[in-house]
Write a structure and sequence with these properties.
Elements (H helix, E strand, L loop, with lengths): L1 E3 L8 H6 L7 H15 L7 H14 L2 H10 L5 H4 L8 H9 L8 H11 L3 E2 L3 E7 L1 H6 L1 E12 L14 E2 L8 E9 L2 E8 L8 E2 L14 E12 L8 E4 L9 E2 L3 E7 L6 E3 L2 E9 H6 L1 E6 L5 E6 L10 E4 L5 E2 L2 E5 L2 E8 L8 H10 L10 H6 L10 H34 L1
Parallel strand pairs: 2-11, 3-12, 14-20
Antiparallel strand pairs: 1-7, 4-9, 5-8, 6-7, 10-12, 13-14, 15-16, 17-20, 18-19
GO molecular function, one term: Hsp70 protein binding
Pfam families: DnaJ, DnaJ_C, DnaJ_CXXCXGXG
Keywords: Metal-binding, Repeat, Zinc, Zinc-finger
Length: about 425
């Protein structure tokens, strides 16, 4: 970030809080903080605000880069880099880094309890995977076994990364995991940046080579393969999630996230699903549409449904029929089902398929025409026309393109005409 050099502000406050001179060494800072923190610890009846101020002062002055910025420009120069001037570490964590969690802790278990209350585990990220399923899978229900790779805490060192189970504070960032750097980029202008510590990669910890765990090499986690059995219940919808709690990547001091499978329903060649209902198209010949039909429809569970219409029950093109309770099972209520809708298409004979004699036979059988019969005189007075086949979708598209082209031409004519008038006026 870029900004003007901050005005000189108080750069002695932190030294006064710790009771040390500005020329104090790192060891003198540690001794002063240790003594004052024990006296002011809240578990010993100390002032919580004073305890936080001590942690803030020590965190800044123990970091050479932050101390240099503070000595030159004061507390204001650290605000953007440290978040409104507050400590980037929990004050109890700073205190714990001095005394640890062993028997030497000055407050025993009581003091450690306060420290643990001050820490909150961050939650790891969820891992999301798409899971493709067929319509048969969600109709009948199914189970799928999936092998996944994930990180787990090293079983040998329990995620500590070291043989001894201990780790030191990174000297590069003083345990912060982040480093703040500042440089002058021009007269009265400085650049201040915060970046992950390259030494500890943001962990704030340092493990010696000799103490690194032999199995994870100090990495604290290892790759592991796990087989998950995913149960897809009947009636689940596209986009629904199946969650495995706490099965994502493990990491030290982190609440493990979830593995989430998102159902992706594949298209079916015959059936279409809308909610809990199923839809299917079926073509009939003209004879079947007029004289009755029957056929076997193979359902998603392999059952054969007999679909039929009695002679004389005329089926019109585009007409739909419903079979109740033969649709999808309802999610978490699988004994209840939606409906199955069949939409019928009627295939008419091709042109020229019927002979004149057949046409006369059909005319005698089929209901009489409702239109009035034309007299020969009327026919003689009419102009004869020719019918052509047409695709209405293509015809509509062609007409739209034609209207757009005509509209552009009109705009061009108006622009040209306006310019001619203007030229005339000049």
């Amino acid at each position: 970030m870029f900004g003007r050099r901050p005005a000189q502000s108080d750069n002695t406050k932190y030294y006064d809080i710790l009771g040390v001179p500005k020329t104090c060494s790192a060891d003198e800072l540690k001794k002063a903080y240790r003594k004052a923190a024990i006296v002011n610890h809240p578990d010993k009846g100390g002032d919580p605000e004073k305890f936080k101020e001590l942690a803030q002062a020590y965190e800044v002055l123990s970091d050479p880069e932050k101390r240099d910025i503070y000595d030159q420009y004061g507390e204001d120069a650290l605000k953007e880099g440290m978040g409104a001037g507050g400590p980037s570490m929990n004050p109890f964590d700073i205190f714990e880094s001095f005394f640890g969690g062993g028997a030497s802790h000055p407050f025993g278990d009581f003091g450690r309890g306060s420290s643990s209350r001050g820490r909150r585990k961050r939650r790891g990220e969820d891992v999301v995977h798409p899971l493709k399923v067929s319509l048969e899978d969600v109709y009948n229900g199914t189970s799928k076994k999936l092998s996944l790779s994930r990180n787990i805490l090293c079983p040998k060192c329990k995620g500590k990364g070291s043989k001894s189970g201990a780790s030191g504070r990174c000297g590069g960032c003083q345990g912060q995991g982040m480093k703040v750097s500042i440089r002058q980029i021009g007269p009265g202008m400085i650049q201040q940046m915060q970046h992950v510590c390259p030494d500890c990669k943001g962990s704030g910890e340092s493990i010696s080579e000799r103490d690194k765990c032999g199995q994870c090499k100090g990495g604290k986690v290892m790759q592991d393969k796990k087989v998950l059995e995913v149960h897809v219940e009947k009636g689940k919808q596209h986009g629904q999630k199946i969650v495995f709690r706490g099965e994502a990547d493990e990491a030290p001091d982190t609440e493990t996230g979830d593995i989430v499978f998102v159902l992706q329903l594949k298209d079916h060649t015959k059936f279409k699903r809308k909610g809990d209902d199923l839809f299917v198209d079926h073509s009939l010949t003209l004879t079947e549409a007029l004289c009755g039909f029957q056929f076997a429809l193979t359902h998603l569970d392999g059952r054969q449904l007999l679909v039929k219409a009695n002679p004389g029950e005329v089926i019109k093109p585009g007409q739909s029929k419903c079979i109740n309770h033969e649709g999808m099972p309802m999610y978490q209520r699988p004994i209840m089902k939606g409906n199955l809708y069949i939409q019928f298409q009627v295939e008419f004979p091709e042109a020229g398929a019927l002979s004149p004699d057949q046409c006369l036979s059909l005319k005698a059988i089929l209901p009489s025409r409702s239109a009035p019969k034309l007299s020969q005189a009327t026919v003689d007075e009419c102009e004869e026309t020719i019918l052509y086949d047409v695709n209405m979708e293509e015809e509509t598209r062609r007409r739209q393109q034609q209207h757009q082209a005509e509209a552009y031409e009109e705009d061009d004519d108006e622009d040209a005409g306006g310019q001619r008038v203007q030229c005339t006026q000049q």
